[in-house]
């Protein structure tokens, strides 16, 4: 694993503190709940948020507000972050506990999905939305983040490539899901998501929740899976073909993968994110599968959140060095079967697009 310097998260807090001058604010207040996108606080603090949490950044000090019954977890998880941890007596109404720390604050930058009823309690303070500015900072990954993400993605791909589907013929999708969960539990790895669709269910979706459907010997299967390692997410989708389905579908799947990697080869720093929709269509055509193109869910940014910006194909941003994102378009075949291949790519320091883990 990449070595994380002792002052790594201190520098992140300082990045946020610089926004006080840039945005002419007296303080910043950032909210996140558990497993919530955008995961601004997981990025800033270097650990998953396990409850409703506010980070208050002032000119000379910073405070982390968390329900008091999670204080022990907070002291352990955020020990390397230069913040004072404050326990609140409530989870759903935390602003009253924060207001004493906002004395003499006239202008407050805010970000995150804080409940509306909480924001109303700040009505006497001038609020400035700085969320997009913070997102622009945290969606550009540095070398340490890339190494942490590579570890997560490498594990995920290795696990998925070795998955013994033939062994589970006759098992329900939900039973297979439980076996995967047990395997991850033994390694103390949180699962970010686990979707299994097999047989006729692949005509409806490639990312459905595991069902009571029993795996059959000639089924196509789609597995959309990811874990969380060192706060960073993986998100990979593979299709598998048992028995006679291999002859029926694998050639289309190879073409789908070829179109995705050809698209990645054409991307670079400065490419408009909206242009990726057009490029994908062109590469589908080059693989003679343009009539199977599905123009939705093309990909997304990824990092300390499962779904971050940019939203591939439908975003006004341009790609930057350090962006990490998925490409995951589907192909809908003549018989209605949906295929999906999803992989994670990044823009390297030279501005070229590369797959994160081959």
Q: Topology, pairings included?
A:
Layout: H1 8-22, E1 27-32, H2 40-45, E2 53-58, E3 62-67, H3 71-77, E4 84-88, H4 95-98, E5 107-111, H5 116-120, E6 126-129, H6 131-138, H7 143-161, H8 173-186, E7 191-198, E8 220-229, E9 232-233, E10 236-241, H9 245-265, H10 275-286, E11 293-294, E12 300-301, E13 308-311, E14 324-327, E15 330-332, E16 338-340, E17 343-347, E18 353-355
Parallel strand pairs: 1-5, 3-4, 5-6
Antiparallel strand pairs: 1-2, 2-3, 7-8, 8-9, 8-10, 11-15, 12-13, 14-17, 15-16, 17-18
Description:
InterPro entries: Creatin/AminoP/Spt16_N (IPR029149), Creatinase/aminopeptidase-like (IPR036005), Creatinase_N (IPR000587), Pept_M24 (IPR000994), Peptidase_M24B (IPR050659). This is Peptidase M24 domain-containing protein. It comes from Candidatus Kerfeldbacteria bacterium RIFCSPHIGHO2_12_FULL_48_17. Residues 12-134 form the Creatinase N-terminal domain. Residues 147-348 form the Peptidase M24 domain. The chain is of the alpha+beta class and 358 residues long. The protein folds into two domains: 8-138, Creatinase/prolidase N-terminal domain (Creatine Amidinohydrolase, Chain A, domain 1, 3-Layer(aba) Sandwich); 143-355, Creatinase/methionine aminopeptidase superfamily (Creatine Amidinohydrolase). Helix content is 31%, strand content 23%. The chain contains ten helices and 18 strands. It has helices at 8-22, 40-45, 71-77, 95-98, 116-120, 131-138, 143-161, 173-186, 245-265, 275-286; strands spanning 27-32, 53-58, 62-67, 84-88, 107-111, 126-129, 191-198, 220-229, 232-233, 236-241, 293-294, 300-301, 308-311, 324-327, 330-332, 338-340, 343-347, 353-355. It has a six-stranded mixed sheet with strand order 4-3-2-1-5-6. Strands 7, 8, 9 and 10 form a four-stranded antiparallel sheet that branches. Helix 9 packs across helix 10. The longest helix is centred in the last third of the chain and has 21 residues, at 245-265. The radius of gyration is 22 Å and the shape is globular. It starts with 7 loop residues before the first helix and ends with a strand.
């Amino acid at each position: 694993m990449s070595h994380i310097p002792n002052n790594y998260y201190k520098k992140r807090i300082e990045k946020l503190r610089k926004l006080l001058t840039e945005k002419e604010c007296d303080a910043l207040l950032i909210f996140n709940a558990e497993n919530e996108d955008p995961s601004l606080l997981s990025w800033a603090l270097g650990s998953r948020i396990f409850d409703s949490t506010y980070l208050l950044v002032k000119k000379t000090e910073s405070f982390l507000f968390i329900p008091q019954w999670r204080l022990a977890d907070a002291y352990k998880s955020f020990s390397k972050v230069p913040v004072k941890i404050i326990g609140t007596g409530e989870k759903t109404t935390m602003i009253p506990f924060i207001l004493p720390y906002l004395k003499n604050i006239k202008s407050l930058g805010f970000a995150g999905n804080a409940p509306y009823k909480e924001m109303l309690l700040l009505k006497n303070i001038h609020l400035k939305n700085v969320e997009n500015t913070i997102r622009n900072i945290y969606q550009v990954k540095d070398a340490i983040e890339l190494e942490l993400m590579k570890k997560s993605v490498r594990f995920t791909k290795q696990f998925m490539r070795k998955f013994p589907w033939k062994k589970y013929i006759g098992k329900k999708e939900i039973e297979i899901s439980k076996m995967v969960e047990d395997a991850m539990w033994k390694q103390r790895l949180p699962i970010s998501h686990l979707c299994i669709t097999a047989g006729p269910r692949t005509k409806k979706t490639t990312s459905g929740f595991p069902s009571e459907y029993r795996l059959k010997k000639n089924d196509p299967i789609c597995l959309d899976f990811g874990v969380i390692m060192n706060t960073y997410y993986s998100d990979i989708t593979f299709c598998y073909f048992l028995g006679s389905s291999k002859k029926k579908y694998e050639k289309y799947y190879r073409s789908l993968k070829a179109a995705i990697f050809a698209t990645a080869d054409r991307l670079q720093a400065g490419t408009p994110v909206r242009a990726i929709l057009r490029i994908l269509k062109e590469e589908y055509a080059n693989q003679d599968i343009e009539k199977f193109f599905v123009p939705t869910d093309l990909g997304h940014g990824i990092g300390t959140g499962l779904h971050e910006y940019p939203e591939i194909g439908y975003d006004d941003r341009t790609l930057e060095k350090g962006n990490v994102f998925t490409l995951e378009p589907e192909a809908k075949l003549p018989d209605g079967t949906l295929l999906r291949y999803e992989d994670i790519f990044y823009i390297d320091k030279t501005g070229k697009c590369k797959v994160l883990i081959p």
